[in-house]
Design brief:
This protein is an alpha+beta fold and 404 residues long. It has helices spanning 2-21, 25-82, 103-108, 113-117, 128-144, 188-223, 227-241, 286-293, 348-401, and strands at 86-91, 97-100, 147-154, 160-171, 177-186, 246-252, 257-264, 279-281, 298-300, 320-328, 331-340. It is built from 9 helices and 11 strands. It has a 6-stranded antiparallel β-sheet with strand order 8-7-6-11-10-9, sandwiched between helices. Strands 2-1-5-4-3 form a 5-stranded antiparallel β-sheet, with helices on both faces.
Length: 404
């Protein structure tokens, strides 16, 4: 537009000059045309130069941007290659793997090439017990965009490891989730430490409960020295430690004979020993005889697998059984017999608990016997003292009634 205005101005000036000075119009027009051409050529050259400079600046900016992008991508790959977590990217629609960093091989024990051959093969490394839940959560994440799960994976050697996987959405211009990207951290050491802490806490709670039960049992066994109370307390305390269905306290009557002092559950009061013999010969029951001579006690996971098992009368239905001797002052007082109708209900731990409780129980039984003996001696002494006093009174009356 500026060139057109300039040419129009030159033309007007030329017409005025030819009229004023009588100059040949054709010669003037030719000169003007040449001048105009030179001016136009100058401006065109200048415009082309400016355009070229702009093109060079644009190309330089593009080169800089591309270099920056390449540098950023290289930095990302270097970071991803050296970090200990797995960087992963999957397609939100097909769930196929688009990218994983080398940490995938270190943590899973599998090559990244396997994902290129089968982009869904990452699903196979999830532990079978966790796979369904994890895949359902992943399917949900393709709609919500959030994925945060801790689960187990299985290495080619069969070793189970724990990972903490988090994912985030990558959306397109319309807000639709196109990809999920995230990290996976190996937390096996942390998980094992948590399990160890939980196990130790459980052991501590179990030990505290055992100590508390033993304290209460010992206190209860020493609060009342009457034999009936001691035996009932012993059976109740045992039930809190060992899950028995039936229990018997057998006390020594002579060298090889035992009598049933107490049982649980209690039989009909009118026939307190119904279903069980009042006395038995240990020689007829090899396992009971072994308990009486062994300080360790015996437990049978399944009585049907034990050739020496002879059930007491009324206890043929027992499948699990354990026996513990009652020993005080190096003397065998009797034994505890515990049973259950289901097999494998007792363990070595139950045997240990029963043996631990048998120590204060035997002492309480011995003290109850001494208490009963003391009561008998006291009653006898009181009776003899009363007889002696009566004799003395009669003698005094006799002497006072004699004539001088």
């Amino acid at each position: 537009m500026s060139l057109f205005c300039l040419a129009l101005a030159i033309l007007v000036v030329t017409l005025v000059a030819t009229r004023l000075h009588s100059i040949d119009l054709s010669s003037m027009l030719l000169g003007i045309a040449l001048a105009t051409f030179c001016v136009v050529l100058f401006f065109l050259s200048r415009s082309l130069l400016l355009l070229r400079e702009q093109q060079q600046q644009t190309a330089s900016a593009l080169d800089t941007t591309e270099a920056s992008l390449l540098e950023s991508e290289e930095r990302f790959r270097q970071m991803a290659d050296n970090i200990q977590e797995i960087f992963w990217m999957i397609d939100a629609e097909t769930k196929e793997t688009l990218y994983v960093n080398p940490a995938y091989e270190t943590i899973t024990g599998r090559a990244r090439a396997s994902l290129r051959e089968d982009p869904l093969s990452y699903q196979e490394i999830i532990h079978p017990d966790d796979r369904v839940q994890v895949l359902l959560k992943l399917e949900e994440a393709t709609r919500t965009g959030d994925f945060d799960e801790r689960f187990r994976i299985v290495s080619p050697s069969g070793e189970a490891r724990w990972v903490w996987v988090r994912g985030f959405p990558v959306r397109d211009g319309k807000g639709r989730i196109r990809r999920l990207v995230g990290t996976a951290l190996d937390i096996t050491v942390q998980k094992r430490a948590e399990e160890e802490v939980a196990r130790n806490l459980s052991l501590a709670e179990s030990a505290w409960s055992e100590a508390d039960a033993m304290r209460k049992a010992t206190l209860a066994l020493t609060q009342d020295l009457r034999m009936d109370n001691v035996l009932d307390t012993l059976l109740q305390s045992l039930l809190e430690l060992v899950p028995y269905e039936s229990a018997q306290i057998l006390l020594v009557e002579s060298d090889s004979r035992l009598f049933l002092a107490r049982q649980a559950p209690r039989s009909d009061e009118s026939t307190p020993t119904a279903g069980y013999p009042l006395t038995l010969d240990a020689a007829s029951f090899p396992l009971i005889q072994r308990v009486l001579v062994s300080p360790n006690g015996i437990f049978l996971p399944d009585t049907r697998q034990e050739p020496e098992w002879h059930a007491l009368k009324g206890s043929s239905q027992l499948r699990s059984w354990l026996g513990v001797p009652l020993t005080a002052s190096h003397q065998i007082l009797g034994l505890l017999s515990l049973g259950h109708s289901a097999p494998a209900r007792f363990t070595q731990e139950h045997l240990r608990l029963a043996k631990t409780l048998a120590i204060p129980a035997a002492a309480a039984i011995q003290n109850a016997r001494l208490y009963e003996c003391a009561k008998i001696y006291g009653s006898e002494l009181e009776k003899r003292t009363s007889d002696l006093q009566e004799i003395q009174s009669a003698l005094q009356r006799f002497q006072s009634g004699r004539p001088s």
